[in-house]
């Protein structure tokens, strides 16, 4: 998913410009992330946590478990027995005993997602849910928490067909206030790949039926309304669909009625412009459309942006994160974080540390991304909760949207990707940038002091990304480049990666949500059954992490851990599995790369120890040890005890978290598990 780049409002421009002014003088200042921890304090601790089960994940000879720890100034200053911690207590020390049965682990570290989008999409006043996945952990109909069991804005009711999607858009249209400053219909997380049979479709599902992904989105959305702007964002974030009024507002160069100051596509502009005239916005145009309308919402509602950032952080903390990522942030989004966390009171209420990844999609000139990252570091200054961790580039798009760059043709293709007037045939997807351009971007980023995240999904994109990494100079000392997603990476490619310089981060929940559609319709069984070869990565010695890419999938680390250990592909009632022999519910095979399941312990380490290493935070986070930040997740049970019954992971509740020593308790989440998976 590419996160919103937000067109800059005047307030954002002003605050970010101030940071940019001092780039020349300030660019060499070290990031707060790189600071070494101070020595353990000898003063009485601020807090002791006692009489509980602590799993440190520390390497030997450090203790693997303990029953108590002490926190001073946001860091762990002692760890051991309850009696030992009580002996350190001073007159102002707070003593806390977690609920019986609680297990403490290092806080979950988010290797890759787009946190702000979770907050923005939770804004039911402006966004309509057309998802088949429970991104926001809504209660299920039939539960006490579901107060409106027929309202998908309140309870989780997955869309099953295109008819469901159209009905929700029509309902939203009836609620538009034409006198509002934002008289739009905006919908999120639409995914035609997961839709079942719609009316008028006698056989087949998803792309075999009518969807917006057929080269006729403009006409279909105009049929719903040709007066009110409608924009539908895909679940991958790589495609959006618009009607004529929305297309007119977006003012994309090369579309009817475009006027001076129009937006020029920056990725494959010829093809993107042709698609835009059909109402389909791919890659940077999708990002532009989402950000255009979201900015309209924020500009019309003062203070909403900061409150939605806080809401997203709360959702992440409720599911165990203590470090979250903003995975593709332009200058204006960084400025929003700065304004939302500018005062001590705002920082005190914020339950996470943010790792910001800079990316400017508005230009093919990558120096703009690097300059935005530099300005972000200056802007954030010494704010302990904000850090520009890396920069980003894209090699390609999304398999389920047919924009991933493959070496061979897709299993099946549908219009508009079969149109020879738009795409060269046979169609294999398109690269966002060439291998040589990726190498140049890596080189320039490293010279500027930043590691890079490279998004790639198709096998051709992965080949290009790894070649660029091999050709570029190493990342700055103490940092690592990240290969993000990598569903089709091969054993030989994993073996060739420099394990001291590169992390591979896998999107395992994709197996659950798209395993069946990708197997049956998009790339076929051989490339799907063993996609995301995390077990091979573990055997090869490559540092690997797991991520959710939220809002692509729900921001639930335990769910991603379950997906990595189980590899179950959802079998929706509305989307039949027509060939379980080729596309088994459990995506494992003895052929190809072999069984790619990993243990719960390996998956937990991917979200803690390995994730800290990915960021260069291993000296300060990832394990519970003296001198490290007191970033802690408190769980109702120990996930490491559930290897014999992996499905038990769905029963764990997040009791609360500590973020840099500050305690944030959960009223137990109504739903900690996003879907009805096997065993729950």
Automatic annotation (TrEMBL):
Residues covered by the Amidohydrolase domain: 216-662
SUPFAM superfamilies, A to Z: Composite domain of metallo-dependent hydrolases, Metallo-dependent hydrolases
Pfam families given in the database record: Amidohydro_3 (PF07969)
Keywords carried by this UniProt record: Hydrolase, Signal
Signal peptide: 1-27
Keyword Repeat: no
Name recorded for this polypeptide: Putative amidohydrolase YtcJ
Organism: Tahibacter aquaticus
